[in-house]
Design goal:
This is Peptidoglycan/xylan/chitin deacetylase, PgdA/CDA1 family. This protein is of the alpha/beta class and 283 residues long. The protein has 8 helices and 10 strands. Helix content is 29%, strand content 14%. The strands form 2 sheets. Strands 2, 3, 4, 7, 8, 9 and 10 form a 7-stranded mixed β-sheet that branches. The chain has a 3-stranded parallel β-sheet with strand order 1-6-5, with helices on one face. It is globular. It binds zinc ion (ZN).
């Protein structure tokens, strides 16, 4: 790689880090500029989602039929994913970090971070899309309203660890990182049931200490990403403008949640891939 290509790549990395930046409660509330390919979001239903875990989720067809008509046609239908082949995890005192899952199968992974913005259509969209989705939740973003996320678990959503308060991990000591990772896993377990075993470092910033702390806290692996999504647009990190097998796509619970989720689904569909469950690939 030439110096100029390298600096472009570095600059792109910086830009993507900014685009990917997970923020606090106010970070996602600015009104995004109108984005080219996306369409306006239908106003959210006035009725809050009040379904409890004891209510059986609607079938995929019923959930799709219940969506506003202008959204219904934007939800692609996917073939089921192939039988998963688990990766091999290295031995040692560090959890590995994956940017993508090494595979040639026609699959990609949907991950959604933080949890600040609680769009009332999210559950319905998950039910209608009926695809595996992994949430990396920040305790501080979800603790006031865990009931928003609980019914999602019956709709194919799994909940994993994104720390308690979203610090930049590389600025913390080993003990400080452990408090965030172990504490995040313990508190998410209290809120949602199974204790997380997968970890996403806030902002994608990690070092060897992070991976040791993650392993010590029972995390099998850490995950960064290959694409980010915001304002209804999927941003590609590499030169290929198509989702590749094994790619891990990042989005957030942000004001344009509906457009972002539909953009992710359609990018996967356009690539001829199908969403698979990240947990199924980790032994
Ligand atoms: Zn985040």
């Amino acid at each position: 790689m030439t110096t100029s290509r390298l600096s472009r790549a570095v600059a792109t990395g910086v830009l993507l880090t900014i685009l990917a930046g997970c923020g606090g409660p106010t970070a996602g509330t600015t009104s995004p500029p109108s984005a080219g390919a996306s369409q306006p979001v239908a106003p959210p239903s006035t009725a809050p989602i009040t379904e409890s875990v004891t209510t059986p989720p609607p079938t995929e067809a019923a959930a799709l039929a219940a969506l506003p008509a202008k959204l219904r046609s934007r939800v692609p239908r996917f073939a089921p994913p192939p039988a998963p082949a688990k990766v091999t995890l290295p031995k040692g005192d560090k959890a590995p970090n994956f940017t993508r899952i090494p595979t040639t199968e026609k699959i990609a992974f949907i991950t959604i971070d933080d949890g600040w913005e609680k769009n009332p259509l999210a559950l319905q969209l998950f039910q209608a899309a009926n695809v595996p989705v992994t949430l990396f939740l920040e305790v501080d973003a979800v603790k006031s309203d865990p009931g928003y996320f609980i019914p999602m678990q019956a709709a194919g959503v799994t909940i994993q660890n994104h720390t308690i308060s979203h610090p930049t991990m590389t600025r913390l000591s080993y003990e400080g990182q452990k408090r965030q990772i172990c504490g995040g896993a313990d508190r998410l377990a209290k809120l949602f049931g199974p204790r997380p075993t997968l970890f996403r470092p806030p902002g994608g910033a990690f070092n060897g200490t992070t991976l040791r702390a993650a392993k010590a806290c029972g995390m099998k692996a850490s995950f960064t990403w290959t694409q980010t999504t915001d304002h209804g647009i999927v941003f590609f990190q590499g030169p290929t403008r198509v989702v590749q097998p094994g790619d891990i796509i990042l989005m957030h619970f942000r004001p344009r949640f509906v457009d972002d989720f539909l953009a992710v689904l359609n990018a996967i569909d356009k690539a001829g891939l199908t969403p698979a469950r990240l947990e199924d690939y980790i032994p």
